[in-house]
Amino acid sequence: MKQNILEIRGLKVGEKRKEKKSLIVKGVDLTLRENTICSLVGKSGSGKSLLAASIMGILASNLYSEGEILYRNKKLLELPEEQLNRIRGKNIGIVMQNCSCSLNPLVKNGRQLSIVLKEHLSKKENRRKQAEELLRSVRLENPRLILNRYPHELSGGMKQRLLTAIGIGGAPELLIMDEPTKGMDVILRNQMADMIYQLHKETNVSILMITHDLELAYNISHDCYVMNEGRITTHGETKTLFETTNDCTLNDLLNAQKIMTEFFAV
Fold first, then answer.
1. Which residues are within 8 A (CB) of 85 and not within 5 positions of it... i.e. 6 or more apart?
2. Are 178 and 210 in contact (CB under 8 A)?
C-alpha cells in the first residue's frame, strides 16, 4: 500500500488585517500518495495557488497560514526558515505558472538551471552535462543550444519545460506544478501532458498538479480534488469522480470546458 507523502489538514490562508480575519483558504484537507499524480482543479480565485505557496512557505508578506502541512510527517508550517530551505528544491520542487515572470530575462537559460544544480548537487558532478540531461528529460531538443540562449528566445512551451527542468533539478520526490498547460494550444497541451506523465513514470516523482485543464487532469492524474471559494467540495479517484460526479463546481467546470472545446473546434 502506498504511503502518504503529503498531508494537509485544516489549512487556512488569510489576509493580515487588524480589524478582522479575512480567510481565502477556509480549512482545506488534502492527501497526496507517494508515486502518484494528484490534480487540484477549480475556478480562478478559489485558492489553489495559495495552497501551493503555503506548502513551499512562500506566501506574500500580507498573508498568513495556519493548520497542518505534513511532508513525510514533518510539520512544514512549524519549521524554521533554515530547515525549510533544505527541503525546498531538494525534497519538494515547484514549477510556477507564469514562466515569463519566473525566468530572469537577463540571464542565460544555462546559468538559471546551473544555479539550482549548484545548490543541490556536489561540486564533483558535471553540472553542464547534468543540465543537458535535465532538458532531455523534459523533451527539449538541442539542449546545448537552449542553454546558451536567453528565455525570450524560447517559445512559451519551451519556457514551461525549462521551468520544469529547474523544478526537478534537485531531484525532488514531490513536485508541485501550477497550471503547466496554461495558455497552450491543443498540440502543446498534449505534448506537455505526455512529458509530465513520462517524467512521473521514469522518476517516480509524486506530483501535485494545479490546473484548469480538466482533460489533462482526467488523462494523467490518479486522484483529484475540486476546490471552490477556498474549500474542497469533493475529491476521489479521478476517473470515477469525473464520470459519476454530482458536484456542482466540477459540473460547472466540465460544462465550461465542453463549451470552449466546441467553440474552438468550429
1. none
2. yes
Helix (H) or strand (E) holding 4: strand 4-15
What's the CATH number where 203 sits?
A: 3.40.50.300
Provide the grid cell at 153: 528566445
180 and 261 fall within a common domain: yes
| Backbone Cα Rg of the chain | 19
Residues 41, 154 within the same domain: no
**Where a domain ends, among 138, 171, 204?**
171
Question: Same structural domain for residues 131 and 262?
Answer: no
| Cell triple for 226 | 475540486
From 124, 139, 171, give the residue that closes a domain.
171
Give, rounded to a whole angstrom, the gap between the first and last alpha carbons of the chain. Answer: 46
Which residue, 197, 234, 219, is CA-closest to 35?
A: 197
Question: Which pTM does this prediction carry?
Answer: 0.89
Residues 240, 236: Cα–Cα separation, whole Å: 7
pLDDT, residue 97, reads 79
- CA dist 41 to 200, 214, 258, Å? 19, 7, 15
Distance (Å, rounded) from C-alpha 4 to C-alpha 205?
13
Q: Mark whether 186 and 143 lie in a shared domain.
A: no
Place of cell 495552497: 51
Determine the Cα–Cα distance for residues 258 and 164; give it in Å rounded to an integer. 28
Binned average pLDDT, 10 residues per bin, the chain of 266 residues = 92 82 91 96 91 94 94 94 90 84 88 82 69 91 93 89 90 94 85 91 94 90 94 94 84 71 46
The answer on 204 and 135 residing in a single domain is: no
265 lies in the same domain as 185: yes
pLDDT of residue 266: 40
- Specify whether the CB–CB gap between 211 and 8 falls below 8 A: no
